[in-house]
Amino acid sequence: MVKARLELLKKLRRQTHASVSDIRKALEESDNDSSKALTWLKKHGRKKALRKEGRETSQGLINAYIHQNGKVGAMVELLCETDFVARTSEFKNLAHELAMQVAAMSPKDVDSLLKQEYIRDPSMKVSELIKQAISKLGENIVVKRFTRYNLDSNR
Prior knowledge:
Elements: H1 2-16, H2 20-29, H3 34-52, E1 59-66, E2 72-80, H4 83-86, H5 89-105, H6 110-115, E3 117-118, E4 121-125, H7 126-137, E5 142-150
Antiparallel strand pairs: 1-2, 2-5, 3-4
């Protein structure tokens, strides 16, 4: 039983990147049912993200993505609370994913970007992707602005 629970904990950790303590709590709350624990973790993550909203975001980075054809590109300014989080691979990856999203889907502004379906997982909105990162990294994260470039093929 202990070994099975440990394997379940490892599986949920790989899936969600949630903290071990959160996963243990989710397993306790769900009587070791992985699908119920996953639902609990998502709900708990959203609550954590909501508590972080409104906190000042003065650090961050700018990420650029150029599509392989070289005709479409995007730059995204993504902010967080500390330079420590801005340097993490998770934050850098989020910025890259958002730049790719902007290049692929051409949102008109930040609000429309947040409402779009995430290109890698259409069952999730971009805002949910950001909330997952907030939950994992423990800081408020904000898309400040972005720009998209498209080489006009009519030149």
